[in-house]
Design brief:
The chain is an all-alpha fold. The protein folds into 2 domains: 57 residues, Orthogonal Bundle (Arc Repressor Mutant, subunit A); 116 residues, Tetracycline Repressor, domain 2 (Orthogonal Bundle). Helix content is 76%, strand content 0%. It is elongated, with a radius of gyration of 19 Å. The termini are far apart.
């Protein structure tokens, strides 16, 4: 019985991730997710408690690993910017779904929490110096600004710029926060 429950829960998560990424938080209903998963919407609530919780768990499951904990910090700036610029459409869609869904109180709080856990804390743990906390937060803001310019605003100049140019220039800015020259 437990395997069947786990499979049902995983099936709900899979279709929810696809629906939320494709349609966004507001346009996706629990009834639709239930229909896609071939279960009653009440069962969706039973497993996840709310649409917000399902949204966050489904999108967290769909996110790829990021390179914050890999390799030397001396090259992290360029590596991370390259990761962002070469991210597949799924990463972009997840980011946009989170941004668009963050106007809901529960989602906004969880997005802030994921920001802390997935970006600020792992980076902070790798930095040294008395201002490591501030630098980790500035680095997160710097990367967030690039994502916003590319994926929300659709800055045509940045989108048309060769990725390697962006990797080198933006990577240098990020690297200065990671490993500042005294």
């Amino acid at each position: 019985m437990g395997d069947r429950r786990a499979m049902t829960r995983q099936g709900i998560l899979a279709v929810a991730a696809e629906a939320f990424v494709a349609q966004g938080y507001a346009a996706t209903t629990l009834r639709e997710i239930g229909r896609l998963a071939d279960v009653d919407a009440a069962l969706v609530i039973h497993y996840f408690g709310s649409k917000e919780k399902l949204f966050l768990e489904a999108l967290a499951l769909a996110q790829p690993d990021q390179p914050l904990l890999e390799g030397p910090t001396s090259t992290l700036g360029e590596r991370f910017i390259r990761f962002v610029l070469t991210a597949d459409e799924q990463v972009r869609a997840i980011y946009l779904a989170l941004i668009r869904g963050s106007d809901t109180d529960g989602v906004a709080a969880r997005v802030r929490h994921r920001h802390e856990v997935d970006f600020v804390e792992p980076l902070r743990a790798r930095l040294t110096g008395p201002d490591a906390e501030l630098r980790a937060r500035l680095a997160a803001a710097l990367v967030g600004g690039l994502l916003y310019a590319l994926w929300v605003v659709g800055d045509e100049v940045l989108l048309a710029t060769d990725h390697e140019v962006l990797v080198v220039r933006y990577g240098r800015l990020l690297q200065e926060l990671i490993d500042p020259v005294a």
